[in-house]
Structures are given as structure tokens and as C-alpha cells.
Amino acid sequence: MIHRKPGFFMRALIMIMVLSGIKPIPVSASHLEQETRTPIQHVIMVMQQNHTFDNYFGTYPGVDGIPSNTCMPFNPLDEKTPCIKPFHIGLYPLIDLKHTSHTFDLQFNKGRMNGFVDAIERANQDGKLTMAYYNSDELGYYWNLADEFVLFDRYFSSARAGSIPNRMFAVAGVPGVVNNAVPDQGFGDLPTIFDRLQERGISWKFYVNNYDPKLNYRSVKGLDYLPPQVQWMPLLGFDRFIDDPELSSHIVDLNEYYTDLQNGTLPAVSYVLLLGATEHPLSDPDLGQTKIKIMIQALMQSDSWQSSAFMITYDESGSWYDHVPPPQIDEYGYGFRVPALLVSPYARRGYIDSTLLDHTSILKFIEDNWGISPLGERDAKSNNIISGLDFSKPPRDPVFVSSVWRPEESSSNVRRIVIYISYGLALAFAGTMLLLVAISEARQRAELPARSQDDFS
Question: Which pTM value belongs to this model?
């Protein structure tokens, strides 16, 4: 179904309805996908891997970042033992830190948040590494996105640990497992957001970079390890999404994302798995940034930009340090904070959003926007990422976002005002100097004595 976008008048009408608390009334069945409570008609969600908020944005200006007096003890039971201060990762040797539920419990330490180094040391790994952080040197593109759009600094992983339960929360509102593994018989009849969208005739796709249709939870049984595609793509653990062509046809290679943008067929809801560029240690964060930059630039160059919300987040912490104790709302979570960015023409510019959120908050937005009932208790009660959007203003035009962080080009109004004032004063000074020079030269010419013909002989 080709997704037709409303014109200016329709967008204005929708905005008035949203601000007035009025639900749009569907005109006909052919306009089903236009029945949204906001001007957003395309949601794209990219879930990366294994980083905490402090690990990526702990030194970003204006956020609830790494406290200045932080020093993590080697032994949380003895505060007099040596401790490790947070440090820029630079060329420090990188490893994949052990990140299990047990590791989380040791690091969380009943809310004391002082077991990060100890937990990694107990796993016979370098505990110092957990205190390392990245900054604008490695994450220039993400930091520039934060300058221009929305950065959430109270976004927690849904489960304490494990890619599988966290990604299940993002599609089904429940963990689906008691450990970080796909059940032997798959996830059974658990409903997902994609089932609800399919029932309503609302378009959706799950884009997978380098997708292999032959890999699913059944085809890899007996292997000693679970291939990343199966581990990180929840729908491949459901029999119906493997066997039913009406459902399996929605799981496609990432190349179709660009084709859909060109053809005007971007679905209402898109989830994305960037296999090979998920930023999972030991992966270079720049691989993920590059892929996401290409995706966002393609979106901005398409007709879909004016009605889109592009969300970037991370499934779990990967055992990196974060200083904010996650609320323990049930037996599964929350886990530690993870990075989360919202890019949209309606995104508040340079905004730090401290709303309490988790992966089910994305479900919450989709459900509220398209009038879909909640999948479970978590998404029913969760807050909504809509807090980062402002529909009282018209959609912003696309902007080029550099991969090199330039804080002087930040979207902060204060910074812009300072820059504009500086430029204005500089121009005024230059103009004044030119005027003074011109006046001085005129005076000198007026004071010269008149020359006779003899002066030229």
C-alpha cells in the first residue's frame, strides 16, 4: 500500500486536533494509515548495542553526566581501597565486557552503584575498562545530532541485561524469556507490535543489514552459538514470522529502505538491525555512526522527512559504567541508562529530555499515534517519547549534520546569540574603521595646496 502523505492543509488540521485533544476521524478505509494523532506518519527505530549513557554522553554539555568526584573502588566493601576515575578511552585496549544479569547485580549493588570495577574483575577481565568513556573525538556525529535534535538522559534499558529480552521488550512489551536465549520452541503466540499493525492494515517493515532469509531460530539449532541475526532480530524466533509469507515478506534487507524512500513507500513503522555495524564492542562506533548518517541523510532528502521520527537507542549497557541508579519496577528491570536520540522535523532543537523512558516508550508512541491497544503492562504504563516533539511549530527543513563535532555551531540559542553578536560587532567595527579611514583621506586631500602648471614641468 502506497503511503500517501497529507498536504499542508491536512497537516495543519491534524496539528490543531492534537493541540485540542481531538482524535482525527478516519475518512475512509483507504486513509487508514493517515489516522494518526500527531503529524508523525513514519517511525524508524534503530537499536544498536551495549553502551551506557555515561559511556557515550557522560561528558556532553548540559546533561546529567559523569559526576566530577567519581572514583570507582576496586572493592565496594572497602572504600579505602584504590579506585578508578572515569577516563577517556582513547587507545586503551578494548574488550567485550562480561554483561550478564549477575554482572548487573554486582555493579548495581542494591542501588549503591559502586560495583562496576569489582564485577568485571570477578569475571577475570580488566575492571578499569568499565570506567572508560567516549567523547566527541569518536562520536562527533552523534554529538552533533544531540546539538540539533533531542538527547534523552533518562532512557533506561527495559531489562537488566541481555540483548534478547531487551529487544523483545521493544517489539512485544515483554521479555519473552527467563534468560538471554531464544526458547527451543520459539516465542510461541506472544503478540508483537507488528501483529497489531498487520491486523489494522498499517504498513511496517523490519530492515536488516545483510539479511540472510535462511537464518532463523530453527535453522541454527544444534550450533554452539546463536548467530547475531537470530539473536538480535526477535521476529526470527517466531514460527509465524518465518512461515507465513504475508508476515515474512516484511522482513527485508536494508537496501529496501533506500528504495522505499525513493519510491515514496516508506512504511508507517520501521525497525532496523544494522548487522555488522551495531557498535557492539569490539566494533568501532564509527561504523554505526556512518550507517545511521547515511540513513538519516537519505530520509532528509525524501518526501517522508516532513512526517517522520527517527529513533536511535541501544539494547543494553554492555557493563559500561553509568552513575544513575535504574528504578527497579519489576523482576526484569530497569537496566542501566542507554543512549537515545530522536531525530525529526518536529524534534525540539538541542533539547535534553529527562523524561523517564525505556524501550517500551517507543511502543507507547506507536500505540498512541495509531490508536493501538497496549501489548502488556509495561507499555501501557510507560511514558512516551512524544515529550521530545513539538507540534506547535511547523516541521523544520533538513539540516546537514557533520561527523566532526563543532560546539560553536550548536543549535543552542545562547550559543547562536553569542555568535551572532560577535559577528555583528566585528562587522560594525570593520565598518567604523573603513569610515574613519575614508574621512581621514578626504581631510588630507582637502588640505593639500593647489598645484600650478610648473609643478608638472
Answer: 0.83
